[in-house]
Amino acid sequence: xxxxxxxxxxxxxxxxxxxxxxxxxxxxxxxxxxxxxxxxxxxxxxxxxxxxxxxxxxxxxxxxxxxxxxxxxxxxxxxxxxxxxxxxxxxxxxxxxxxxxxxxxxxxxxxxxxxxxxxxxxxxxxxxxxxxxxxxxxxxxxxxxxxxxxxxxxxxxxxxxxxxxxxxxxxxxxxxxxxxxxxxxxxxxxxxxxxxxxxxxxxxxxxxxxxxxxxxxxxxxxxxxxxxxxxxxxxxxxxxxxxxxxxxxxxxxxxxxxxxxxxxxxxxxxxxxxxxxxxxxx
Length: 282
Known about the structure:
Layout: E1 5-8, E2 15-18, H1 28-40, E3 44-47, H2 54-62, E4 76-77, E5 80-87, E6 117-126, E7 134-138, H3 139-144, H4 148-154, E8 158-161, H5 163-169, E9 186-189, E10 191-193, E11 200-202, E12 209-212, H6 217-231, E13 237-240, E14 247-251, E15 255-259, E16 271-278
Parallel strand pairs: 2-3
Antiparallel strand pairs: 1-2, 3-14, 4-5, 5-16, 6-14, 6-16, 7-13, 7-15, 8-9, 8-12, 10-11
């Protein structure tokens, strides 16, 4: 087994892994220990000073499961369709090489699919001189902090998730690259047990959750807005300040995240490669 150190980054979510090179082979015992550390850290691990070639990122990510090929095809890395480019860079024709709008809202990756994503690994190739942080919320801790009557109320509720919801929030970005009806809406329990830890987690997010079934729209909006506000209270959130070479692995089953787009005008770009590990049925 390879030696590495785990350093907590916040009281509730996130840890830095020191001494492990993701670009090289990771033996089974080390991978098992890494996976255990991931769960212990609330589903968020940070690996700094990495040098991840696209194939190395794909190979490491695939250790967790099958990889997604994103529906927005124009943002995929040529030769590596498993890598989705999150970028404000532009090509010689002035077109974005990656999705410049990606993540500017709180969400859990691919919650609009059945089954939704297990995890994502985002690797920083270029970062702006300031700004461009990403916030991560621990949705299990947020659930635990709810009062018992609210937890009881939520236990039987089902929410609808729809990719088109985010297209309605923004009038550009991926809208032009995904046809209407490409992805049907899906239903998920508002409270989902984590498949591996068994821990109850809130599974709703502002980006893709449209409503709670069986409630009037004003009732659904009131419940969802309460949960959205509750889940991003400071005590449940870690803010990551990116450096080139950072690789961040998060569990979409127990977290949601939000990329802060405050860096326009700084003279820098945000250019990253993302792999997403598909989930399995509950």
